[in-house]
């Protein structure tokens, strides 16, 4: 069953790669005329078409693109002819670092807050946490980012721009990327907390929780022994969903803090209409997104006795 | 900080006004609408009031704004003054006027986009749930594949292809968002389609359009309305983010996202002016969320009461 | 022989919340229970029996609060006790058996782990001893494979077995008192017997006091020493079981007893050709065959009762007749001509002839449509009525089902009682002016008195319009009351069929015998006699 799920995930990734590739076919005219503009002579267009391999049929080009991508070769940028793999290189690492940093901060905070506010439902704590979360969800990411800049960077505690190079130490990195990571954390924590709370409250209403209470068990034991094992699947899904959300979140945050990551690169590529780079980065983001959901599905299958122990 | 104080005071004033209006509604209304008003928490009243104010500002923008939207009326980055209450922007346009026109442009575009996404997404979702079989399979698998690409990333991909005009922005975001609406509408409808009254209507020989219009839609309305609010927030934030990234609504059109981007340099000097448009975005999103929360609570409360 | 008092509840008041308003749902109930005694608590839905039962544990569900009275358990005041003191009692000295065992076992743990939990936590016995004890009790509860069954997860065990495992679990600490909250309601009749017998024996064996909550008088009569009747949160009367059955004092109690006395006079066998015939129908969901070679006839002015337990294929037969599930072979013949197998291929007139009434009126009526539209739509669609004519027709139909048109015509289903909703379902079927009506368990979700009203109404309409009914039910009492012909189904096949008097007169087919003998009777000795005769 787990194997089928993994196979499905790979299949989905394949379909997504098709969608991303097929997107270029939607271009009015074709890529070459698009790049050169209306005033280009037929000769130059033809030359560019040959150079981009546009004369091959679409399936052939798709196959070349996909096999290239799988070996880390995404072709060259249309804007400056540099290999896309080089452009992505270190930036991929930076983005992953930022996302993991934010995840490490937000997951424990969000789960704790979510579980506590579910247990103390309608208490002052719950109301405050909910109001705070609702507020954080409603703010655009760049707003949170600039407010943090205004408060924390203006006072000189943290840098408002991130300048990192290969020689930066791990500690310095943590320090310099604190503000972008905090911005992401605030946004994601709010979502994750609300969803965790809803999942737990939903669960606490089930008859088997009432049964546990009627057996005279302590509240702590009810939560740990009776609620938590059943809450694992929903919580895993909540975490996966929000980590996936982080992937999108980095784009805006990277721009605000001038962080040298994939998001920044993608925004530049979209402005330049550098479709080759956009496709490559979209594929990477989509793969990460699908991978996260796949892991979540597999983990929640493993934790569910109904799926692991058939009749 | 005088600015923080005046913001706090302004919000408190809005809350007080919301309280007064709610009290008035309780006193004046009768019957069903009165019971709605008396159940309404203060946050929801506040949310409704804010939404009404935004709608008014958007409609009456030319009357309210002291200067035209796009005209350069002063030197760049003027400080707050009697002539320009919120100063001027990077090339000397009046900030207040642009903020007011922004209500029309940003909110209007977000609303149109959400409405488009909703009509397409919910109709397809209801239809898929009702018909089932291969149609449902094809539509659902297609939507699954599209949803496997993160929304912002997919939007960026499509914007690269279609260019970043306002029309393509609306179409692209609506298309991406329609997939989410489809999912929700389909799952809501699936809960309704298994009901015996749907079977009874089928046995009567009713057609698909009657079933959607008369049997399913009235029962799906409450969750769909709440979802409309949430989707609007999401679309509104997405469009603002894209504009902020320079890929959405572009100057000279006054738009809150691009206004933040345009004037961001001031923030590093400790000036809050560029954050005002972001604050406008945040206030509306909070307001809509308050109203949606109340609606969701009402829907769940009603269910409990009828059990 | 009166033993010492174990539980004494006086003047109990409990409030429940709906929306933002609190209203009293238990209005001053007194209750006394002696050691080793079984008290039956009966009443219709909304009587507050479960709420009282839980209050005996000092427990109130979310949205309920105990507002008055005292609850004394063996000298301990449960209302004044601290939560920790109450917790020490629950599971150890007072245990609970819920209606739905499938939902009340934690799906994440094996049965035996859940069994051992209370004894270990309350310090009654160590885990290994508790597990040995569990096997012993599983054997006493006559569960199959007592050594192995504890190591299964709840979803791997059938409903009747889970209910017995839950009773064993409640017994784990050898409590003084067990609250049984409708423990057999969700089970089929033949399973109900087994569970009921097991519960009765184990309670007697360990001399445990019990409160047995149910809406079924015949069930409670088998197990209880005394019976208390509740109505809308108040006590109607209380008496020892035999006295209560022989000579109920209050009108309400008498009316509860009288329900099963309603019966339609026996009709002569029909001589005309059948209106609708099911001929050799075999049907499947995917590859699973759910119906095999099912045949029977339905005559005008007569009722065919299709009887069987869950999974017997009675509702599937209805789906085949209406065209929702086209059969793999066989046919449905209406008025001498075969109907197209699939719904979509049938003409409007063919659809009109066969109407359906559902079990759950709540889900069968669109909650957003007013009665005018609910009842009017078939008349509009099939008979082309509009405007005044339609309005008059809807009013006629409301008259027929004994509801005042002026009061009800613009109401929503949510503003009606359960019985009224079911009447609307009947009116909607009548609006099409059909010749056959399929009634799918139409009375089983209703309280007994309301059931009788519906059955009488259906009988009156049948005589007035010469309707043919196919009556799907699992309730033998209903079959006795209204059927002319009976079809007994088991696992997708017809195992017995014939005129009602034939079916109910011995000798019976073996399965019919089992089914008939499993129906509880209003006789405290019935279960003992039955078990003796089966042994």
TrEMBL record, chain A:
Q: Which domain of life is it from?
A: Bacteria
The molecular function GO annotations come to: dipeptide transmembrane transporter activity
Q: Which CDD domains match?
A: TM_PBP2
Record's subcellular location: Cell membrane
Transmembrane portions of the chain = 7-24, 96-120, 132-154, 174-193, 231-257, 277-302
Its predominant location is membrane
**Keywords per UniProt:** Cell membrane, Membrane, Transmembrane, Transmembrane helix, Transport
Q: Does the keyword DNA-binding apply?
A: no
Tell me how this protein sits in the membrane.
Multi-pass membrane protein
PROSITE patterns the record matches:
ABC_TM1 (PS50928)
- A Pfam family this chain is assigned to: BPD_transp_1_N
Per the record, GO CC terms?
Answer: plasma membrane
Domain ABC transmembrane type-1 stretches? 92-296
SUPFAM superfamilies given in the database record: MetI-like (SSF161098)
From the UniProt annotation, give the residues forming the signal peptide: none
Tell me its family: Belongs to the binding-protein-dependent transport system permease family.
In Swiss-Prot or TrEMBL terms, this protein is called Peptide/nickel transport system permease protein
From TrEMBL, chain B:
Quote the PROSITE patterns the UniProt record gives: ABC_TM1 (PS50928)
Per UniProt, residues of the ABC transmembrane type-1 domain are 103-292
Gene Ontology CC, one term = plasma membrane
- Segments spanning the bilayer are 43-65, 107-129, 149-176, 228-249, 275-297
Q: CDD domains from the entry?
A: TM_PBP2 (cd06261)
Which UniProt key words apply to this protein? Cell membrane, Membrane, Transmembrane, Transmembrane helix, Transport
Annotated membrane topology is:
Multi-pass membrane protein
Q: Which GO terms describe its biological process?
A: transmembrane transport
The record, for InterPro entries, names: BP-dependent_transpt_permease, MetI-like, MetI-like_sf
Q: Where in the cell is it found?
A: Cell membrane
**What coarse category fits the chief subcellular location reported for this protein?**
membrane
**Cleavable signal peptide:** none
- PANTHER family, alphabetically? OLIGOPEPTIDE TRANSPORT SYSTEM PERMEASE PROTEIN APPC (PTHR43386), PEPTIDE ABC TRANSPORTER PERMEASE PROTEIN (PTHR43386:SF25)
Query: What does the similarity note say?
Result: Belongs to the binding-protein-dependent transport system permease family.
The name this protein goes by in its record: Peptide/nickel transport system permease protein
The organism named in the record is Roseicyclus mahoneyensis
Taxonomic lineage is: Bacteria, Pseudomonadati, Pseudomonadota, Alphaproteobacteria, Rhodobacterales
UniProtKB/TrEMBL annotation, chain C:
Query: What InterPro entries does the annotation carry?
Result: AAA+_ATPase, ABC_Ni/Peptide_Import, ABC_transporter-like_ATP-bd, ABC_transporter-like_CS, Oligopep_ABC_C, P-loop_NTPase
Q: What is its main location?
A: membrane
Outline the extent of the ABC transporter domain.
7-257, 276-516
Quote one Gene Ontology molecular function term. Answer: ATP binding
Q: Which compartments is it annotated to reside in? A: Cell inner membrane
The protein here is known as: Peptide/nickel transport system ATP-binding protein
Regarding protein family, the annotation reads:
Belongs to the ABC transporter superfamily.
Quote the SUPFAM superfamilies the UniProt record gives. Answer: P-loop containing nucleoside triphosphate hydrolases
Q: Which Gene Ontology BP terms does the record give? A: peptide transport
Domain of life (superkingdom): Bacteria
Membrane topology, record value: Peripheral membrane protein
UniProt KW keywords: ATP-binding, Cell membrane, Membrane, Nucleotide-binding, Transport
Q: Name one Pfam family in it.
A: oligo_HPY
């Amino acid at each position: 069953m787990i194997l089928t799920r993994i196979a499905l995930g790979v299949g989905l990734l394949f379909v997504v790669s098709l969608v991303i590739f097929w997107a270029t076919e939607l271009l009015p005219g074709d890529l070459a005329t698009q790049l050169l503009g209306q005033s280009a002579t037929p000769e130059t267009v033809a030359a560019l078409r040959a150079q981009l391999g546009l004369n091959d049929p679409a399936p052939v080009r798709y196959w070349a693109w996909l096999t290239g991508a799988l070996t880390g070769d995404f072709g060259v940028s249309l804007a400056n002819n540099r290999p896309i793999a080089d452009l992505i290189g270190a930036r991929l690492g930076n983005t992953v670092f930022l996302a993991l940093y934010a995840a490490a901060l937000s997951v424990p905070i969000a789960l704790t807050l979510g579980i506590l506010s579910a247990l103390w439902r309608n208490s002052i704590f719950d109301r405050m946490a909910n109001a705070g979360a609702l507020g954080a969800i409603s703010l655009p990411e760049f707003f949170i980012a600039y407010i943090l800049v205004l408060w924390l960077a203006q006072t000189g505690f943290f840098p408002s721009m991130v300048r990192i190079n290969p020689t930066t130490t791990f500690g310095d990195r943590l320090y310099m990327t604190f503000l972008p990571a905090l911005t992401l954390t605030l946004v994601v924590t709010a979502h994750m907390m609300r969803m965790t709370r809803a999942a737990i409250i939903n669960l606490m209403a089930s008859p088997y929780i009432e049964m546990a209470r009627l057996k005279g068990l302590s509240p702590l034991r009810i939560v740990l022994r009776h609620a938590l094992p059943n809450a694992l699947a929903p919580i895993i899904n909540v975490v996966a969903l929000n980590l996936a959300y982080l992937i999108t979140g980095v784009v805006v945050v990277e721009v605000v803090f001038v962080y040298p990551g994939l998001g920044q690169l993608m925004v530049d590529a979209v402005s330049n209409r550098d479709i080759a780079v956009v496709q490559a980065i979209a594929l990477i983001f989509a793969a990460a997104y699908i991978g996260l959901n796949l892991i979540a599905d597999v983990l929640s299958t493993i934790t569910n006795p109904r799926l692991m122990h058939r009749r | 900080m005088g600015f923080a104080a005046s913001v706090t005071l302004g919000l408190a004033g809005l809350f007080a006004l919301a309280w007064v209006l709610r009290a008035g509604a309780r006193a004046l209304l009768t019957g069903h609408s009165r019971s709605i008003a008396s159940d309404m928490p203060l946050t929801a009243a506040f949310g409704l009031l804010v939404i009404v104010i935004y709608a008014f500002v958007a409609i009456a923008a030319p009357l309210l704004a002291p200067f035209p939207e796009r005209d350069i009326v002063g030197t760049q980055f003027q400080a707050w003054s009697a002539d320009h209450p919120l100063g001027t922007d990077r090339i000397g346009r009046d900030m207040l006027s642009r903020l007011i026109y922004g209500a029309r442009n940003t909110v209007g575009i977000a609303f149109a986009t959400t409405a488009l996404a909703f009509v397409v997404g919910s109709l397809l979702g209801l239809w898929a749930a009702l018909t089932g079989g291969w149609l449902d399979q094809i539509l659902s698998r297609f939507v699954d594949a599209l949803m496997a690409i993160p929304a912002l990333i997919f939007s960026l991909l499509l914007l690269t292809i279609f260019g970043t005009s306002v029309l393509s922005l609306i179409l692209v975001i609506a298309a991406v968002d329609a997939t989410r609406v489809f999912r929700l509408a389909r799952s809501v409808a699936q809960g309704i389609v298994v009901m015996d009254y749907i079977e009874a209507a089928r046995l009567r020989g009713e057609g698909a359009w009657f079933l959607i219009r008369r049997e399913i839609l009235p029962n799906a309305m409450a969750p769909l309305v709440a979802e409309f609010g949430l989707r609007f927030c999401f679309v509104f934030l997405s469009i603002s983010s894209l504009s902020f990234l320079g890929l959405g609504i572009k100057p000279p059109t006054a738009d809150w996202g691009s206004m933040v981007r345009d004037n961001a340099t001031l923030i590093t000097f400790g000036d809050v002016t560029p954050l005002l448009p972001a604050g406008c975005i945040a206030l509306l999103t909070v307001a809509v969320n308050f109203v949606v929360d109340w609606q969701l609570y009402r829907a769940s409360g009603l269910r409990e009461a009828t059990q | 022989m009166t033993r010492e008092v174990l539980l004494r509840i006086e003047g109990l008041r409990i409030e429940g919340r709906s929306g933002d308003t609190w209203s009293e749902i238990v209005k001053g109930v007194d209750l006394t229970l002696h050691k080793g005694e079984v008290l039956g608590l009966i009443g219709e839905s909304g009587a507050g029996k479960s709420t009282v039962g839980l209050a005996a544990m000092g427990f109130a569900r979310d949205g309920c609060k105990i507002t008055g009275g005292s609850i004394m358990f063996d000298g301990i005041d449960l209302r004044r006790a601290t939560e920790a003191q109450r917790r020490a009692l629950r599971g150890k000295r007072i245990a609970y058996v819920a209606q739905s065992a499938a939902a009340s076992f934690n799906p994440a743990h094996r049965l035996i782990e859940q069994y051992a939990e209370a004894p270990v936590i309350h310090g009654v016995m160590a885990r290994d001893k508790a597990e040995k004890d569990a096997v012993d009790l599983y054997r006493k509860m006559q569960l199959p494979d007592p050594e192995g069954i504890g190591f299964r997860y709840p979803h791997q065990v059938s409903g009747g077995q889970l209910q017995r495992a839950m009773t064993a679990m409640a017994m784990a600490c050898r409590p003084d008192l067990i609250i049984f909250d409708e423990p057999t309601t969700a089970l089929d009749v033949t399973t109900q017997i087994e569970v009921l017998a097991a519960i009765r024996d184990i309670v007697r064996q360990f001399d445990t006091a019990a409160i047995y909550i149910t809406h079924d008088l015949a069930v409670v009569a088998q197990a209880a020493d005394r019976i208390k009747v509740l109505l809308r949160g108040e006590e109607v009367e209380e008496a020892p079981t035999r006295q209560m059955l022989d000579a109920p004092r209050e009108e309400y109690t008498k009316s509860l007893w009288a329900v099963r006395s309603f019966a339609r006079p026996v009709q002569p066998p029909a001589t005309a050709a059948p209106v609708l015939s099911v001929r050799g129908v075999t049907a499947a969901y995917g590859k699973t065959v759910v119906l095999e070679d099912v045949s029977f006839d339905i005559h005008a002015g007569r009722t065919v009762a299709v009887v069987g337990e869950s999974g017997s294929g009675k509702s599937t037969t209805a789906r085949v007749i209406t065209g929702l599930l086209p059969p793999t072979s066989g046919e449905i013949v209406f008025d001498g001509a075969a109907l197209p197998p699939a719904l979509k291929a049938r003409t409007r007139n063919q659809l009109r002839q066969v109407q359906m009434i559902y079990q759950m009126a709540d889900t069968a009526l669109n909650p957003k449509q007013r009665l005018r539209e609910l009842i009017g739509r078939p008349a509009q669609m099939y008979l082309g009525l509009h405007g005044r004519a339609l309005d008059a027709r809807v009013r006629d139909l409301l008259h027929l089902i004994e509801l005042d048109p002026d009061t009800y015509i613009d109401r929503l289903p949510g503003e009606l009682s359960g019985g009224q909703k079911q009447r609307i379902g009947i009116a909607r079927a009548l609006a099409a002016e059909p010749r056959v009506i399929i009634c799918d368990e139409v009375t089983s979700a209703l309280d007994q008195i309301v059931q009788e009203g519906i059955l009488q109404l259906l009988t009156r309409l049948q005589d007035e319009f010469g309707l043919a009914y196919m009556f799907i039910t699992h309730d033998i009492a209903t079959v006795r009351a209204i059927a002319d012909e009976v079809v007994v189904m088991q696992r997708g096949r017809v195992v017995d069929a014939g005129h009602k008097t034939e079916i109910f007169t011995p000798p019976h087919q073996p399965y019919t015998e089992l089914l008939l003998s499993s129906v509880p009777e209003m006789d405290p000795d019935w279960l003992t006699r039955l078990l003796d005769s089966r042994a």
